[in-house]
Design a protein that fits this description.
The structure is a homodimer. Chain A is an alpha+beta fold and about 120 residues long. In chain A, about 45% of the residues lie in helices and about 10% in strands. Chain A has a three-stranded antiparallel sheet with strand order 1-3-2.
Chain lengths: ~120, ~120
DNA sequence: ACAACGTATCGACACTTCTCGATGGCTGGC
DNA sequence: GCCAGCCATCGAGAAGTGTCGATACGTTGT
């Protein structure tokens, strides 16, 4: 960890830094959500839930369209819940999954956290 | 593919479908970009690049801040290039990585593709 | 030509993730 | 109380991912 202060030569490749970059903790946090979104099956599940009335659907509505085993769908739904994108609620015999209001907006905002000046501000 | 039309009983759990959901091809496409964003190191690399003047930085600016081996950083940068988020250009001895203009906006828009009604429209 | 430097690629390893069949817990109807 | 249906969890196998040291490639300067 001891720095060699005798070498003060500036590497001649570097550009100017404009602002602070994302800190490691925030990066970890945001990456968790993006990782949850980084699977085509999970994106389809989110979309199917959102396409239902009230942004809510029961598992029986979700298993068939994605064409995977029930255990696999259940696993993906858990990942989405853990990422804070869906909530689960039991109503009688059926389990329902619903979009967390504003969760996807939060994701869009986290993009601005990564690279503010590269995004067009939302009126 | 033959449907059994003798069973017309509606399962009594299902909610009403409001619109079409994301098709598998689009899901795969979007998932590829989200997967690239789903790693804390890559988010930090993106952020560091964006934090430089002109949204461009050379590799020597990137290796040290993330605290990983040069080979690992190079690997992550390749993933970001393959996802269409960065471009690479060689200038003399040094390689420069730059944000693809509008790429992150595209990502934000793909969120709207997944669940349109859950997002506040951008004025 | 040759040496020095910056960076990409290769090969290997540990670890995670996706997928499934089987099992178990919970609910509602008989 | 028992059975049937919905769904989460378990265990396992195959595939993918993150990381590194070593090496190869291209550029610059001598």
């Amino acid at each position: 960890m001891s720095l060699d202060l005798t070498d003060v030569s500036t590497p001649d490749c570097c550009a100017t830094v404009v602002r602070e970059s994302l800190d490691p903790a925030a990066a970890e946090q945001h990456a968790r959500v993006f990782k949850a979104l980084g699977d085509p099956t999970r994106l389809r599940l989110l979309s199917i839930v959102a396409a239902h009335d009230g942004a809510e659907a029961c598992v029986c509505d979700l298993t068939e369209p994605v064409g995977l085993a029930q255990a696999t769908v259940s696993h993906h739904l858990k990942v989405l819940v853990d990422a804070g994108l869906l909530t689960r609620s039991q109503r009688g015999k059926w389990g329902y999954y619903a979009l967390v209001p504003g969760a996807l907006d939060q994701v869009a905002r986290s993009l601005a956290d990564v690279a503010p000046e590269s995004l067009i501000p939302h009126g």
